[in-house]
Every structure is written in structure tokens, then in C-alpha cells.
Design a protein that fits this description.
- It contains 6 helices and 2 strands.
- 57% of the residues lie in helices and 6% in strands.
- The protein has a two-stranded antiparallel sheet with strand order 1-2.
- It has one domain: Winged helix-like DNA-binding domain superfamily/Winged helix DNA-binding domain (Arc Repressor Mutant, subunit A), CATH 1.10.10.10.
- By secondary structure, the chain is mainly alpha-helical.
- α1 packs across α2 and α1 crosses α4.
- A hairpin with a 5-residue loop joins β1 and β2.
């Protein structure tokens, strides 16, 4: 199991949107891309997918951009995985006929996937924001 670049970039972008959620102001792609060091074009594609999945909203115009479609505490990290990858990142299963050895391995793999899914469902974007805040307070920067 591996965290894809696609999923990581999406979570970083959503972290920015969740952080700005209380203000209700949309963020433009270039703002998110600059803050999280994500290529603009790639981010544009990710946000379009998240919009189609009902996780973000887009707003047109000079003051337009992207906003979360719902409160950050109601969007689980699993929702994001499911939107981007259809849950395939965790639930891959070979469609070919399996022998006993492969069936045993597949059974354990399915248990691992179920556990991973449960963890992803346990955390929301709000939890991610709170963890970021807590970690940034643990490592204060000192300037001279």
C-alpha cells in the first residue's frame, strides 16, 4: 500500500481549503499551488475531479476559486480516496482464479485493506488541520 502523489497533492490542496473554510472565501488554484508547491495544471485536474465528486465547489469570476462543498469535519480522508481512486488504492483484487496459496494471501490482504479503510474513515479534513497546527507549534522557528 502506498500513498500516491495524486492523493497526497489532493490532501494538501484540501488542507488549504479546510484551513480557509471559516472565512468562506474561495482560494484560487495559483494560491493553493504556491502554498503547497503543486504544479498548477496538475492541481487543476485534481480539483476538477474533486468537484465532480462533490468534495469541492468552484466559483467563477474575479474573486472566484475553490471552496469545500461541506464542512471539513464531515469530509473523511476516505471520501477523498474514494473520489479520486474509487477506493482502488486500498481495495485492489485480482480477478483471476486463485489457488489455495493465493486465496490465503488474498484473505489477509483484504483484512489489511479493511483496516486501512477504517483508519482513513476515522479522520476528517478538520482532523488533518488540527494535526498540522499541533505539529507546527511543536517545532517553533527561532529567528535572530
Amino acid at each position: 500500500m502506498e500513498l500516491s502523489c495524486r492523493l497526497e497533492y489532493a490532501l494538501l490542496a484540501l488542507l488549504e481549503l479546510a484551513d480557509r473554510y471559516p472565512q468562506g472565501e474561495p482560494l484560487q488554484i495559483r494560491q493553493i499551488a504556491a502554498q503547497q508547491n503543486i504544479p498548477d495544471r496538475y492541481l487543476e485536474q485534481l480539483l476538477a475531479t474533486l468537484r465532480r465528486g462533490g468534495i469541492v465547489l468552484s466559483q467563477r469570476g474575479a474573486k472566484g476559486g475553490y471552496l469545500l462543498a461541506r464542512e471539513p469535519w464531515t469530509i473523511t480522508l476516505w471520501d477523498v480516496i474514494d473520489c479520486l481512486e474509487g477506493g482502488a488504492a486500498v481495495n485492489r483484487k485480482d480477478a483471476t482464479a486463485m489457488v489455495a496459496d493465493r486465496e490465503a494471501i488474498a484473505a489477509i490482504w483484504q483484512e489489511v485493506c479493511a483496516g486501512a479503510r477504517a483508519v482513513w474513515q476515522q479522520y476528517s479534513l478538520q482532523d488533518l488541520c488540527e494535526q498540522r497546527r499541533a505539529r507546527s507549534q511543536v517545532n517553533p522557528m527561532y529567528y535572530i
